[in-house]
Structure formats: C-alpha cells, structure tokens
Amino acid sequence: MQLNVNGKQHEVDVEETMPLLWVLRDELAITGPKFGCGIAMCGACTVHINGMPARSCSIPVGQVSGQVTTIEGLGTPYAMHVVQAAWVEHQVAQCGYCQPGQIMSAAALLQVNPNPDDEAIDRALSANLCRCGTYPRIRAAVKTAAAKIRESNL
Amino acid sequence: MTRLRKDSIEHSRRSFLIGSVGSGLLMAFAPSINALEVITGGASQQLSGKLFSPTVWFEIDNNGAILVNVARAEMGQHVGTAIARIVADELGADWSHVEIKHVDTDPKWGYMVTGGSWSVFQTYVPMSQAGAAGRTVLIEAGAKLLGVNAHDCTTQNSMVVAGSQSISFADVVKSGKIDRVFSADELAEFKPKSPASRQLIAKPSQALDIPAKTNGTAEYGIDVELENMVYARPVVPPTRHGSVVKGVDDSDAKKVKGYQGYQILNDPSNTIQGWVTVLADSYYGAVKAGNAIKVEYDVGETANVSEQDIISQGEALAKDKTSGTLVVEKGDITAAAKNAKTSLESVYRTSSVLHFTMEPVNAAVEFKDGVCHVHCGNQWQSLFLPVVAKAVGMSEDKVIIHQYYLGGGFGRRLAGDYMIPAALTAQAVGKPVKLVFTREDDARFDCVRSPSVQQMNAYWNAEDKLLGIEHGAAAGWPTLAMAPAFMPDGVDKKGKYDPFSIAGADHWYTLDNHRVRAINNTLAQKTFVPGWLRAVGPGWTGWAVESFMDEVAHKQNVDPIDFRLSLLDASGKNAGESPVSVGGAKRLAKVLTDIRKQTNWGQSLPKNQGLGIAISSGQERDMPTWGACVAHVEVDPETGAVKVHKLTGLLDCGTVVHPDGALAQTQGSMLWGMSLALFEGTAFEKGQVKDTNLNTYSPLRMNNLPELDISFVQNTEFPTGLGEPGLIAVAPAIANAIFNAVGARVRDLPIRPEAVLAAMPS
Amino acid sequence: MKSILCVLLLCCSVIFAAQAQETNEAALKTWDKIYHVFSHPRCANCHVPDDNLPRWSGPSYAKTSVHGMNITGGQSRIGVETIMCSTCHAQSNADEPHGPPGAPIWMLAPVDMLWWQQSSSQICQQIKDPNRNGGRTLDEVAHHILEDELVHWGWAPGIGREPAPYSAEETADFVTLWAKAGAPCPQ
Fold first, then answer.
1. Which of A33, B495, B532, C62 has the smallest count of CB within 10 Å of its CB?
2. Residue ranges of the Aldehyde oxidase/xanthine dehydrogenase a/b hammerhead domain (chain B) (predicted)?
3. Does the beta-carbon distance from C88 to A40 stay under 8 Å?
4. CB-based burial of residue B217 (10 Å sphere; 0-12 exposed, 13-18 middle, 19+ buried)?
5. What is the chain A residue with the closest CA to C73?
6. Are B705 and A139 in contact (CB < 8 Å)?
7. B35: enclosing H helix or E strand
8. What's the domain range around A119?
9. Pairing of strands A2-5, A67-69
10. What is the mean pLDDT of chain C?
11. HSE (CB half, 13 Å, CA atoms) of A116?
12. Shared-domain flag, residues A69 and A32
C-alpha cells in the first residue's frame, strides 16, 4: 500500500484496517502524532489528510487517500510553521503530549479562518484535550498566529 | 516527609570538584560525604579518571556551551529550565549558551523523586552554591589570563569582566588547568545572589524544552524504539489485588495478524497479581489480540466492591470519634463539644478521580549484558527501581531506568508499577518488549485518588464564641500502599498516618481547640492502590476545610473574608519560621486582604451569580505557598448547571524563580482544580472504576475555560513550590460562590448539577 | 328484492367499513413499528433540531446528552470549519469499544427531518410531507431506507451500541405496507 506522508511516498505492508496512527508511529517511526484515547476523543493523534484535520487513531489506513501531514511535516525545527512559532512565543507547551494535535488542529483552522474569535477557536479546539491546562495560552497563540497570517496576506 | 527531603538533598553535604577535563570544564559533587579525605591528585584527575564517579551537575565546553544535568522528571513544569537558570544566574552565564539533559538512574544522582512541588524548593540552595563555586573558579582563572586581580572581576553574559577588559568563558575553559576542590563547608559559605544582582532568576525567559514539544521531536516513553522489540498489551485483571489466572483461551487472538502469543506473569515483587500480557509484532495487533483473548480468573475479594461501599465505610469511620490517628490535637475539643451551646456538623465527600495523563502508562524493557534497562517516563525512580529488581530477580545495581519526557505526571508516575509487567514480559520472552496500556487499561490500572469522606464539627459557647473545630478525614492512603516507611507517628504516638493524605487539615487558622484525625479507609485500601494526585491531600482536605469555614462564617453571620482574617492572627505555631514559612499566617492574611480588593469583594452581581472565596497553604506546613482564590459563578436555577465566569488567583510563593513558568503552573493547577470541582469523577463498580475513557470521563475542555486572573505577591522570600498549590482553593471557592449565588450548599465533589438543584432552597 | 339489496349493501358497507377499520388499525400498528425505528436513538440522535447538536445515548450514559467536545454539525449538518464530522468519523465503524461510528458519509439529517423527542404523530406528519422529507413519495422513502448507507448504519452501529429494531428491509416493507393502507397517522 502506498502512503504519502509529509511529501514523501512510502510503501507500507499492513492490514487496511490498521489505524493510520499505528502505521505512522510503528511502521514509519513518525512519532509526533500521539496515542491518547484511541477513540478520537482527545485529539493527540491529529494529523492532516489533504489539509483537513483527522484523528489518525480512528481512520483505517485503507481509507486514507491523498497527502498526510504530521507535526513533523508542518514545519521543521529550523523553520517553524507560523503556528509553531506562536506556540513557542506564548510558551504554550507544558508536558507537551497533546500539543502536536493542538497545533495541527489550529493550523487547519487558520487555513480556513484567519481571524477566529474565541468561539471559533473553542469550536475548533475543544475536541483536543489538554490535561496541563494550557488552554489560555493556546487561545492566545492562535490569535498571534492568525495576526501573523493576516499580515503576510496583505 | 522530612526523611524524604533529607535523602534527596544529601548532595549538599558533599564536596564540590571543578576541573579541566579534556577540552572542557566539569563541575561536580564528589560521590560521598567524605570524598575530600580521599581526594588525591586534585579535582581534574579525579574527574577525568572517573575514579569514583562524581555527580556532574554541569559542564562548559570549549565553545562556551553550558550543559546542565537534571535529575528531575520533566512533565510540563519546565523543571530543567528552572534549575538551569539558578545555576546560570550564579555563574553569570549567557542563557542562550545553556542546554539541559535529563539523566538516568545512576545512583550518583542521588535520590530521584519529582513531586510535591519540591524541585525548585529543594535544589535552590545547592544549585546556587554550585553555580557560585563555578563563578569563583572562572573568575580566578579569567583574572590570571587578563592579568587583573580576581577581586575586580565579575561575570556576565558568559564573560569574566574587569572594567573594560573581558574574556569569554570559552576562552577561560580553553586555557585549561582549572583544578579546584571546595569542601562542603566552603560550599556552604556561598549565599545565593541578592535579588538585586540577579540576571536570570525572576526574569522572563523561554523554557528550553518547549521547541522540541512544539515540533514533534520531544521523545516520550511511548516513543521509545528498541531493536527487535515486540509490542505488548496487558490484560488487566478484574481486581487490583488477589486475582489468579485460571485459564487462557487465545483461539480468537490467534486469528490476529502478527499475534505472538501471551504470557502469564508471575511477579515476585507482588505488585501485580493475575496478569496476562499479549504480544504481537505491531501494537495494533496487540490491541486486537487483547480484545480477542479470553482469560478466566479466580477473582480477588473486592470483585463486588462499589463506590458507595467505600463511601459508607468512610462515613462510619469519620463519624466514629475514636477512629484514626491524631494529627492535630490542640486544647480539649472533647470538653469544647461537651460545653457547647450550639454546634454545626457537615460531611464532605469526594468521588474517585482518575489521573488520566494524556500519555497512557507504558514502558519498554530490554535485558542486555546482564542489565535490565527500563525506558519510560517516571517521577520517582528511586521508589520503583528496587521493585523492578525484585520482580526480575536481579540486584538493584543491574537495573537502570532511562528517563524520557512524561506525557503528564500529576502524581500518576510517582508509582512505577507499570514497569513491572513490561519487565516480566521482556524477561519471559527473551526479547525487548514495549508494553503500552490502552486508555481503558490505563484507567483500570490507575492508582486513583481515593474517594474520601470528611466530617467537620464546630462548637460555640453560650456567648456564640467559636470554641473549636474537629475534623475527621477518611480515605485510602497512597503512602501506606507504596512507601509505608514514610509514615510518621501520630501526635499521641498511637499509630501512624499518611502525611500526604491529611496535609491541609493542619491549616494556619488559630483555634483554641482543634483536633484532626487521619483515618484509613481499609476498604479503599483493599480495593485499589490509592494514588497521589496533583495537590494530593490538600486537594481534598481543602475542600472540607474551606467549605466548612464558609459555613461557619455564614452561621455566625460574618463576612467569610472577615471571619477568616479573624483566625489568621499568626500566633503560636502559626507564626511561621524563617526562612521557608517566615511570616506564617500573616502572609496568608495579606493574600486574603489583597484579593478582596482586587476582586471588588462585596460588589452586587446579577441574580443567580455570586463570588466565593477560599484560601490555601499548600503543599505542607513546612513548605507553604500562600494562596487565595475567588470564583465568580452563575447557576442556572432550572438545571443546577454551574458556569464559572472567572477565577482570580493570588499566590505568595516567595521569590518567583521563573515567572512565566510560575504562571503556567498556576494556570494549569487552577484549571485542574476547576476540572475536579465540576467535571471529573468516577465510581467503583464491581471492584473497578466504571469510567475508562473520554466517552464518559469528561475533564475540562477549552469551551469551559473561564477568565483567569492570576498574580503573585512580589517579594524575595525563600521560593516554595507552585506545581500544585493553585489547585487547592478552586473547588471550595466555586462551592462557596454557588452558595452566595443561589443559597445551595454542596458538599460532594464533583459538584453535579443535580446536587446543586437538590440543595437549592425552595 | 330492493330491501334485500339494501340489506346486502348495508352488510357489505358494514363489512367494508369494518375492513377499512381493520386496515386502518393494522396500518397504524405498522406505523408504530416504523415509529419505533425512527425514534430509536440510533436514528433520532442524528435527526436533531436546529441546534445542530448530535445526541449521545446508550447504556454508559445515564441519560441522553448532547455530543461531547463542543461538537456541532453546524447549519451544513456535516460539521463546521475544520471540525467536520469526518474529522473523527471514518467510512466504517471503529473496532474499539466507544470508538467513533462511521459510514461513507457521516452527517446529521436535514433539519426539516426532525425526529429527536418528537411524538409519533409529529414524525408521521413529517415523513409524509414532501416539503420536509426530501421531496420523496412514500415509495421513495422506502427505497431510501433500502439504499442509503448512513441509514443502514442504524442497524449495524458497531460494537457496544444497540441497533435500531427490525432491519432495513423490514422497515422499508413496513413503509410500503403502511403507504398502501393509506398511510394513516396517529392522533
């Protein structure tokens, strides 16, 4: 089976029913997407499929068609995505385990809505659980990233 | 508590070595207290020869990069950053040159535990001294190179500076030839820098671990890959204790692709009983095989225990005034009760709660060259390393726990019980094994915060003067289950108690007569392994104390803040002690007075809205962080649903070492407190927790985020912990606000809408 | 002769009336079965009002609640912005207990087709009304039940969930039978 992750084509030999998350983590050693609940309710496993967020723990790999993007493919340690840069600026991460998912959800939101209010942010991110309580910083970082995106669109 | 702390700061009695090694400079504590006597040939030779494995706290390479080794678990508190900044500030280092490394369990690092909000508290002095010693040596060497007097030199931005001349740390290190030993006494001479001369401490900064946690490169225990490893999943038995495997039918599991059989575990450490693990060549396979395998058990005696059974025992124990261990005994509460004209009795309950760390517990284990290597995130390696050794039948020096980032600690990873099935499985199959608990497995194996019952009694005389308060608190005790040696004697020496399960009841209010009994709920203790959960004892004793103080104030028709202030007179044992609790209850009174102004206490609010106050002095009396919380809530009178509009938190933790980190920890702990107040609670049903995943266990999410207004008292007192104290006052502040909003007094956590509705005056 | 005829006619009409009565009663009983299906949580939880909030019911929930995680179907009924139903709901049910159920297209029913907490009479009126049933004849409604994959999910909702009663085929037959009998609605 062919799978395109972060712009790179991979050949994987797994059952079609295997959730995308385990293909990424255990077959391709892409460990940014995290295992949290296994039932699409914590959001730690969030990746993009063709630019839209998806809970990789609950999408069978056989149903994936198109480009998969993980946190590793959003930016690089040397050239962070605008959302990641805002995350560092606001010092969002505590334990950090949920943050790849939070960032992927936020990045997708800002693609379609570069000026989200609190309600839109809550809508897009309430399905991403954080136990450390970084929610206030996530909100602030999303707004900072949004402002930067709007600036660069001018 | 005290013993634990002494163990963990033992390195402060060791001599300190600084020497050129290779092309760098190492700064290390000598391995034993008497090291000075055996040191020959100077620090450099000892350090480079590694004759007795010194504890390298930090090193500077010839490019000036400073590496600080951190023996604390990183679980979101950016502890490495806080510790490194203490060192770097004393050194006069350029912060951008500083890196941190989390180390494994080599005994030289000393006792390893990260909990109780102690990390900064415990390391502040020794790390300041180590940094100051480093500065002294760099100045001495730099002065020589510059040809100036050392007394005329300072350090800043990783340079030794004398007037207009300067030399970089890198150049000093390159010149080599540094060789210096400080005795423990010499080291003790170094006092931490005065607040005015600090460059880094208490200044804004970025945490060193955050970029990796933002770009997906941070490595957690669950990310560990070992060559040729097999994936495993546990089959958690129906009871925590006493289950025995009678038979296993894996005919359906055999249909799973990549299934590699199962193991019935026999655990000599007796941590787990009746466990089976299933193995597969992928974790997906292990999950499916775990769903398919059928295990038959002889179940333990708690197979039918319910939450109500545990609560009922707690209620009976709390009511029985002869039960438990005396923790506070001031005056004569029995006489006060006898002479009382009026009295008030309230019973407070809290439900079982899960840790629900985002990263389910897991461990990867490999036996290699006679050593058992355990890879996982853990908070108390020193507690479970001996247990792993016992389980696998090896000596403790043949077990190494490698540390990773923790996808949430919150006390769950103080217990290292999840290492045991991984180690036993790896040993049985003779291959490296990565054992990952599914979320449901994790919940069923959690060392939950025990359900609790607390009975509070207050007594007044004929003149309506408050005579005293009696407090009985019954719960399962984590310390009894996992570290019984840390249990002190009661004040009357008749029995021991878990200090972590009663802290907070020994509050800073001055009462003429005050009795506190810590009571072990034996049914809870049998049914599960009670766990330490963020804020531990004060996280639920504070619920009773601060709710009851409010009830007492209202009964006396006194404003709840005025009432509290009247008892915070800082007399007697509440005067505090220098340096840690200097000021005592006065500092609590100041926090309370300040927050009253800050929140415009007494303002008129729309119908069904109210403000509520509660204070806290977490974590313990010998490391108090003084705090207050005001909650602004609105209650829907039709449904009883509570909306929290705003939480105001004011904390006095002495010197704030890392201001943004302090704010982050307090945001997190206050939101955890709110989650416990309104959203989190499960129940035992047939011997296990009934909520095992997010379909029914529903912690706080972003859409319930209130406005947060958090600030810190600005002073330069001794720094105390911040990871937990913010949590304590939130639930009682919310409950007290609910009372002020609609007159409903709720006494059970979590606060369910139905309970609010039922308590509303008709 | 005439009177005999009258008697006969009278008898017949009584019989016919009785038969009609019987047919009507039978049809209403058939409708009850249809209502039993439509009002079942597997169906009604997604036929929700204009709050656009899917519902959750089942043995693990004490009572029906709105979908957690602040989720809404939005006016589009397929999710809003970047939280589409398909963010979590795949094309098939998850294997894991309480995992997200799935079907090729996962969405809320159009807002006109409100079933949640509606009486038998209300749903009956709705299903007969082409303005509120997607412009379908009752035959087409029956056909829809037979053909639509999301509708079929109601009878194969994944592990741990109680399926809707009967089957898609039986339900389609009930609709056909009820329609032939004049599709009476309860009062």
1. C62
2. 215-301
3. yes
4. middle
5. A123
6. yes
7. helix B35-38
8. 82-152
9. parallel
10. 91
11. 30
12. yes
